[in-house]
């Protein structure tokens, strides 16, 4: 122990406890000199404890500078703890690490106690995610461009039809095309910005729900908003959330490829589904009386590719989950209450406007 320790600190204080903690531990003094390191600290840097003890801390911790160490030391208050992500280097070895440093006194003398953990795997994962996000951003831009081209063609033909006279049907087509453009923008935002929403504001559940219902092909299905309330949300994202839930209920009967519901129960247009929006304590519920959900854990329903969209995209419920998370809400899929079949999507943690 004496070969890896110098100064007035009693090695016996650290031998049993510090050597067994499983992370790198080092202690340095007001001069910035390592007075103690454990084996895990030295091993991480592929050196020896004897090589480190007596060295200045700035020769290892790359974020510290010799001529500014006194300012750094004086900035610490008694008992203060700081965390940082940085790099430690010895010779040719450089390791990304997470550090936690605490000021403590031993027999009246101040020391900084530091621990380090290797961040190499985390850094590699971060780089992988960055590359994946860049590819996703590129892909989303290409898809959006390719979707907008046929939309522009459709708008051109729509204008030609309007030259022969306007009608309610043409207005519905125009509304649907405009909504598709908004959805493309929303999907790009989800892909490029992740869990983001616009400025939250009071939004009427009834108004947003009925607006969303009007954009979904509902057939003979019907919507009931049992209780109206103003929730604090991004109205556009909330509308998209309702649209995806309504589409899921009407076009799937709240089923998915894994459900055990009969085939004739999920054929579009072969049933009439009732959908109900209601409030609960700290949230709201969207329920339907369709065939219901599969047994067991339903969390997979919110995974991309698993929600069973009829167009094969599998992002309907995944987008619902993203929008809920962006607002700080939780969402769970459950059976409809009572003995009847059906599904309930429960949103909790919702803030209601006064």
UniProtKB/TrEMBL annotation:
Key words, A-Z: Kinase, Transferase, Two-component regulatory system
Start and end residues of each Histidine kinase domain: 142-348
Domain of life: Archaea
Entry-linked Gene3D superfamilies: 1.10.287.130, Histidine kinase-like ATPase, C-terminal domain, PAS domain
Record-level Gene Ontology MF annotations: phosphorelay sensor kinase activity
Pfam families associated with the record: HATPase_c, HisKA, PAS_4
Catalytic activity: ATP + protein L-histidine = ADP + protein N-phospho-L-histidine
Every PAS domain range: 10-55
InterPro entries referenced in this protein's UniProt entry, alphabetically: HATPase_C_sf (IPR036890), HATPase_dom (IPR003594), His_kinase_dom (IPR005467), HisK_dim/P_dom (IPR003661), HisK_dim/P_sf (IPR036097), PAS (IPR000014), PAS-like_dom_sf (IPR035965), PAS_4 (IPR013656)
E.C. code: 2.7.13.3
Name of this chain's protein: histidine kinase
């Amino acid at each position: 122990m004496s070969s890896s320790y110098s100064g007035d600190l009693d090695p016996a204080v650290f031998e049993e406890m510090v050597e067994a903690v499983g992370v790198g531990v080092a202690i340095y003094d007001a001069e910035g000199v390592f007075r103690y390191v454990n084996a895990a600290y030295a091993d991480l840097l592929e050196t020896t404890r004897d090589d480190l003890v007596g060295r200045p801390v700035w020769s290892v911790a790359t974020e510290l500078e010799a001529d500014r160490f006194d300012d750094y030391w004086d900035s610490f208050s008694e008992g203060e703890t700081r965390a940082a992500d940085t790099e430690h280097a010895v010779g040719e070895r450089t390791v990304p690490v997470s550090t936690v440093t605490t000021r403590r006194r031993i027999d009246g003398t101040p020391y900084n106690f530091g621990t380090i953990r290797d961040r190499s795997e985390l850094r590699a994962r971060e780089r992988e995610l960055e590359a994946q996000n860049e590819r996703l951003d590129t892909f989303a831009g290409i898809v959006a461009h390719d979707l907008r081209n046929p939309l522009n063609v459709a708008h051109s033909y729509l204008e030609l039809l309007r030259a022969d006279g306007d009608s309610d049907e043409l207005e519905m087509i125009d509304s649907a095309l405009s909504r598709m453009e908004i959805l493309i923008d929303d999907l790009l935002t989800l892909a490029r910005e992740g869990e983001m929403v616009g400025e939250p504001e009071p939004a009427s559940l009834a108004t947003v729900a009925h607006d969303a219902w009007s954009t979904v092909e509902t057939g003979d299905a019907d919507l009931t908003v049992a209780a109206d309330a103003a929730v604090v949300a991004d109205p556009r994202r909330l509308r998209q959330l309702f649209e995806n839930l309504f589409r899921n209920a009407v076009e799937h009967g709240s089923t998915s490829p894994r459900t055990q519901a009969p085939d004739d129960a999920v054929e579009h247009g072969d049933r009439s589904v009732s959908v109900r929006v209601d409030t609960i304590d700290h949230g709201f519920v969207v329920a339907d009386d369709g065939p219901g959900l599969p047994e067991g854990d339903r969390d997979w329903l919110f995974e991309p590719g698993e929600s069973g969209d009829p167009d094969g995209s599998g992002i309907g419920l995944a987008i619902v989950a993203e929008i809920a998370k962006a607002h700080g809400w939780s969402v769970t899929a459950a059976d409809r209450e009572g003995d009847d079949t059906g599904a309930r999507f429960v949103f909790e943690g919702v803030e209601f406007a006064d």
